[in-house]
Amino acid sequence: MPENGWFNTGKEATDRASAKPQFGVSHRYYLKVGGEGEIVFIDGDNTVEEPIGSYREHAFVTKDGKWPNFASCPGKGCQVCREGLKPYDAWPFTIIQLKPTWTDRAGKEHTNEIKLLVAKKEAMQKILRHIGLRKGLIGTQWNVFRSGQKSYTIGDDWQFQRKIGGDGVVLPLERRILIAKEFSLKPEDVKQINYREALKPKTIEELMAEGIDFEGTKRREASFFGGGQGGGQAGAQGGQSGGQAAGGQPNQGAGSDVPY
Questions:
Q1: What CATH number is given for 8-225 in this structure?
Q2: What is the rounded average pLDDT for all residues in the chain?
Q3: Is residue 227 predicted with pLDDT exceeding 60?
């Protein structure tokens, strides 16, 4: 249980990436199998002023078969935990999705959208390495590719392209202004998602209204892992946003990072 509630920041957050494993959605970044994308980070420098955060999360199927759906775990007293669904560790980032683009029913093409990218343990270990090598993630542009069904839904092959504003010391706010200019976005829109609000734990009443299916979720996990051996996923993304749905989840093993 986080010292200051359900959401960690700073060293407490990054330490969880190397810790031993423990036994909404439409705006999440997701790549289908064989999919290729391009992203730019808006946060992720992991400084004292702007530390990386972490939380624990559940993924579940609904009674009408919709999958995946997500619910942040508040820790002590979590009703989802009591039903036997164990949470996994997750680290949120704010990105601009350059590719893939998508077209809505009205024929409007959507591009350069702000998205929530959620990494799980093994993916986060790699991201921490990138932070060190690139001296922070803000402004870094990546080509990402998802190679298979069991690879990260945020992509398992990341190729660095460039760092907007260069490799020198640039304040986060200044680099975000450069990012906005580069992609013709409003500067006020290029900002970190309010994670405490966007990922606020849902009440059991809200989850029941969404149609959470505890037994259905357990069956799905058992089917995927063969005999119910739990596992996590690396980048559980979800939702139905013009084809930007999501996929990924977990239950018993925050550290195995395998998608369903």
A1: 3.90.198
A2: 83
A3: no
